[in-house]
Amino acid sequence: MEPxxxxxxxxxxSDESSGSxxxxxxxEVQEDPSSxxxxxxxxxxxxxxxxxxxxxxxxxxxxxxxxxRMMVDMGGYLVNLMLEDPGVRQRNGPPRMRISTxxxxxxxxxxxxxxTRKGIANELQGDxxxxxxxxxxxxxxxxxxxxxxxxxxxxxxxxxxxxLGIVPYPALRDSAIKRVVDSMFSEAGLSWSNVxxxxxxxxxxxxxxFTELKTLIANENASGYHVHPYLCQLHSTxxxxxxxxxxxxxxxxxxxxxSNLVQDCPQFTEKVCTLIREGGVNLDNDLKKPGETRWGSxxxxxxxxxxxxxxxxxxxxxxxEVITVNDQRxxxxxxxxxxxxxxxxxxxxxxxxxxxTNELSLALDKKDLDAENCMALLQEAxxxxxxxxxxxxTPFLNKVGLFCSENEIxxxxxxxxxxxxxxxxxxxxxxxxxERYHVYxxxxxINIHLNELEKRFSKQSAxxxxxxxxxxxxxxxxxxxxxxxxxxxxxxxxxxxxSDIVALDFQLxxxxxxxxxxxxxxxxxxxxxxxxxxxxxxxxxxxxxxYLLLKLALILPWTPATAKTASSAMKFIHRTVTIEPxxxxxxxxxxxxxxxxxxxxxxxxxxxxxL
Length: 611
Prior knowledge:
The protein is an alpha+beta fold. The chain is built from 29 helices and six strands.
C-alpha cells in the first residue's frame, strides 16, 4: 500500500530539526554519527528487533519519548547480535551504505509491511481465503479506522487469521474503499477471485463500511459469502446498533458510569449489598463479575439495575452525602441526574429485547458451537421480537408505569404534546407522547434488533452454517449428512463442477466409513481439529474433494480459528490506539508486531528491494 493511502504523519515525525526517534537510535549504532550515510543492514537489523519486541507500542503513560523507551531495551538488541549464529547471518561483505533521510525508518517499516504481506501470500500459495473487517476508534483524534484480516488454512490444516492492514476511515468513500483493499491485496499477491467468505464487526461496527464491502465483494466474487463471525458478541452488536435511539445511548452511558463507581468506590457496593439484604431481596452472591461492566455483561447489568433499583439509588445518595472523594461523588451525581422516565423506559425495553436474544448470544459465544441449535434459537428470537412489537406495547407501557410509580419517577401525560429536547426537531414537536414512545421508541428499537438479526443471519448465511456443520466430528460425526454436504458444495459452482459433485458423493461415503473406524479420529469435537487431523494422516490427499469442502466451511468465519486469531489481535489494537497517536508509522508497527513470526524470516535483501 502506498503511503498516500494513510493519514499524514504528525508534524513531529516529519520535522527534521526535531530528529526522528528511531533514526536517533540508529545513529547510536553508526560508526560515524556525523556521516549523512547509514549502514542499511545494521539499520534493518535494528528495526526488525524494534518491530518484533513491540518497542514502538509500549504503554507510555509516563510520556517518555520513544527513543528513550527504545534505548532502555537496546541491551537486548546487542545481546541478540552477540548470540547470533554467524552461520545464519545474512551477509558478511562490506557495509552497504545508504543516505540517511528524515523518513528512512518510515520507508523501512513500510518495506517490512510489503514483505510481510508477501509472506502471507506465500503461506496461502494461491489458495482460497476469507476476510474479516472491523472498525476501531482512537479517543485522541476521535477518528475511526478499518482493520482487515485474511483467514485461511495453513499447510498443517490450522485455521489462521492474519492482519493485512489498517487504514483511516475518512478515505473509505465511493470507490476509495476498493482502491485501499486492492492495494493491500496487490502487495500480498491476493486475488478477489479467491475470496470465499467474509465477516464483519468483531469488536467495532460501521454499517456504511460493511454494506459497501459486502456489495464490493458480491460484485467481484459471488462465492464470497458473508456469515456472522465467531466471537463477534451478538449483544454488543445489538446494543451498538440501538444507539440510533439516543435514549438508549444515554442509558448505557449511565451503566458505564455505574460500573466505574463499582470499581472505584467499594463503600458504594457494600452499601448496595447491605440495603438489598435489609429489603429481603434474594441477593446475587456476586455483584462483581467480569464482563462488559463490573456487574457482568450489559444484559446482566440491566437486569441487576432494574431488580435492585431502590437500593442502588439509596446507595448513590449515601455516596453523595458521606463519601469525601469528589470524583466518586461526581459519578453518583451523574447517575442520579439521569434517572428520569426516558431512562426507566430504555432500561426496561433493552432488558426485555436483550432477554429475547440472550440464549442465542450465549450459544454463539461457545467454542464448541452447535449450529443447528443456534439457528433454532435465532428463529425463535425473531418470532418473539415480532410478537413483542406487534402485541406487546400495552403490557410494556403498564410495566414501565408500575416501575416508575414504585420508584417515584415522574411520568409524562401520554395524551399531551411531546416536547423534544432539541428545538430543531420540528417533526417530533408535532406528535403526542404516546406516538413518540410507542412508534419512535418502542417499535423503533425492536425493529433495529430485527433488522440487525436479518442482516447478520440472512437465509443464505443460515443455510451455509447449517449445511457446513454436517462435517462436525463431534460424537463420532453424529451430524454427518451426505445429501446436505452435497447441497453445501453446490453453493460453490466455480469450485465444484457437475462431475466433481458426482465424485464428491462417492468420496463422502467412503470418507465417513473410513474415519468412523479410525481411532485417530475419535474424541474430536471441532471441524478445525478435523482439518488438522486430515493433514496429519494424509487423508486430505485421499479425499481431496471432502477436504476442499471442509476448507470452504472453515474459511467461513462462524468457526473459531486455531492460530493467529483476529479477535485477540483486535483487542490488542483497540487497547493500543487509545494511548498512541495514529499515523502510517504506527499502523505499520502494529502489523509488524502482530505478525512478527513472518517479520523474523524477512531478509535484508528483500527489505532493500522494497525500499
